[in-house]
């Protein structure tokens, strides 16, 4: 099964890829990053390697054409001029092991680094940056930088997180066509809070239809019919377009994610401030549960032409969440109310392009304050075959991570 994940490098993407690999470690997964202006993403290295307290903080980027597999595969990966601090031993270029880019062999072999290049004082200097060779050479430029999914360097796994990441514009028909070529299943959930969200979604549907994709999974939002929220209105438009596409589709409607509350950041600040009254209870869904459902409907029959609301039956106020984090972590966390006006002012100050986001956030917040973002938990419980994760489960997992 060949799967396209639209937006693979964000939080949702990493959870979805984990879940897909959990069901099928050998699944052929491709990612489409929607930002055409970001082809030179840095190579992600061993945690700690980009220590901002030293010269190691400079990201390693590749030069266009560097991954040309039509030339000698023994060439070193050259870096952008000035990218490597020549005042330290880290100025040496990263070189590849002979044959490391051999597309006829295992795709997940790592790029070895020059001894000392990743030396963080932690003894991890020999861990490699993984590379999956792009089999679409000729249709997709190989000059793009190597991109990795968070967790890709976990040497305790089968290196299963390595995926091919294509970069393109979701509003460009040619980029969409290249992304869906040869794909069986499209998983689309990007992008939120974008004024062209609906056009991007319907465009991906058109591309899937033209390519003969067999299954299209669309991650929408709980109660998308509440069209007073701009993001909901856009998602509902995509749902309607999908229903008339002729594809075998599944729509998933998740509620607000637990991951929107960063436990580590809350503990560092010693405070949790949300744009609701302290006693207003909100429903939250664990993104890992959403990902398990995505993997299930992507790999099993029986979910075509179905729309599933995904919600837990737990609703917590800001004060209750702060108390829960305090209890689980043993560190005091206070609860406060973040004025919506302050949140919106910060977005508007970012520039005219964020005016839509500010309005969308304002309307979404107002709806959540009225409704609590609550939903029926029956479908989620049935799809998971177990109880959904509780907020306490999420907090405990965050502390171990």
List the helices and strands and how they pair.
Blueprint lengths: L1 E5 L4 H13 L4 E6 L76 E2 L17 E2 L33 E4 L5 H8 L4 E4 L8 H15 L3 E5 L10 H14 L5 E6 L8 H7 L1 E4 L7 E2 L3 H13 L6 E5 L4 E2 L1 H12 L4 E4 L2 H10 L5 H17 L6 H7 L6 H10 L1
Parallel strand pairs: 1-2, 1-6, 2-5, 6-7, 7-8, 8-11, 9-13
Antiparallel strand pairs: 3-4, 10-12
Helix pairs in contact: 1-6, 2-3, 3-4, 7-11, 8-9
Structure at a glance:
With 401 residues, the chain is an alpha/beta fold.
How would you sum up this structure, described in words?
It is a single chain. This protein is of the alpha/beta class and 401 residues long. It is built from eleven helices and 13 strands. The strands form four sheets. Strands 5-2-1-6-7-8-11 form a seven-stranded parallel beta sheet, sandwiched between helices. It starts with a strand and ends with a helix. 37% of the residues are buried.
Which structural traits does this protein have?
single chain, 401 residues, alpha/beta, seven-stranded parallel β-sheet, globular
Individual helix count: 11
- Percent range for β-strand residues: 5-15%
- As residue ranges, the low-confidence spans are 36-160
| Helix proportion | 25-40%
Q: What is the CA-CA span between the terminal residues? A: 31 Å
**Which sequence of SSEs, written as H and E, runs from N to C?**
EHEEEEHEHEHEHEEHEEHEHHHH
General form = globular
- The quaternary structure here is single chain
Q: Provide the structure class.
A: alpha/beta
Biggest sheet character: 7 strands, parallel
**Radius of gyration using CA atoms only:** 22 Å
> Count the strands?
13
Largest sheet, spatial ordering of strands = 5-2-1-6-7-8-11
Mean pLDDT, as a whole number? 75
């Amino acid at each position: 099964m060949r799967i396209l994940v639209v937006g693979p490098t964000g939080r949702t993407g990493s959870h979805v890829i984990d879940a897909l690999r959990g069901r099928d470690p050998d699944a052929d997964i491709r990612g489409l990053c929607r930002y055409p202006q970001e082809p030179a993403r840095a190579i992600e290295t061993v945690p700690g390697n980009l220590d901002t307290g030293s010269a190691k903080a400079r990201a390693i980027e590749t030069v266009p054409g560097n991954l040309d597999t039509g030339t000698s595969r023994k060439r070193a990966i050259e870096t952008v001029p000035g990218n490597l601090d020549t005042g330290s031993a880290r100025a040496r270029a990263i070189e590849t092991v002979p044959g490391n880019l051999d597309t006829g062999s295992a795709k997940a072999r790592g790029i070895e680094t020059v001894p000392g290049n990743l030396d963080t004082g932690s003894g991890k200097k020999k861990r490699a940056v993984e590379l999956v060779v792009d089999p679409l050479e000729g249709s997709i430029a190989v000059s793009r930088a190597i991109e990795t999914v968070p967790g890709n360097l976990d040497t305790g796994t089968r290196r299963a997180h390595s995926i091919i990441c294509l970069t393109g514009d979701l509003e460009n028909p040619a980029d969409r066509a290249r992304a869906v070529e040869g794909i069986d299943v499209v998983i689309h959930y990007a992008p939120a809070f974008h004024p062209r969200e609906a056009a991007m979604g319907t465009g991906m549907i058109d591309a899937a239809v033209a390519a003969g994709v067999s299954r299209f999974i669309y991650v929408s939002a709980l109660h998308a019919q509440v069209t007073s929220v701009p993001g909901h209105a856009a998602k509902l438009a995509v749902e309607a377009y999908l229903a008339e596409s002729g594809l075998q589709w599944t729509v998933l409607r998740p509620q607000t994610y637990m991951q929107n509350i960063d436990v580590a950041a809350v503990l560092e600040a010693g405070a949790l401030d949300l744009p609701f009254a302290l006693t207003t209870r909100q429903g939250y869904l664990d993104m890992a549960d959403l990902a398990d459902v995505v993997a299930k409907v992507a790999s099993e029959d029986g979910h075509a032409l179905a729309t599933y609301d995904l919600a837990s039956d737990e609703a917590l106020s800001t004060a209750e969440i702060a108390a829960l984090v305090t209890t689980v972590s043993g560190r005091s966390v206070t609860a406060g109310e973040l004025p919506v006006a302050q949140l919106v002012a910060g977005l508007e100050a970012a520039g005219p392009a964020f005016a839509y986001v500010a309005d969308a956030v304002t309307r979404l917040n107002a709806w959540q304050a009225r409704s609590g973002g609550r939903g029926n938990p029956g479908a989620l419980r049935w799809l998971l075959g177990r109880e959904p994760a509780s907020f306490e489960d999420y907090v405990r997992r965050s502390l171990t991570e």
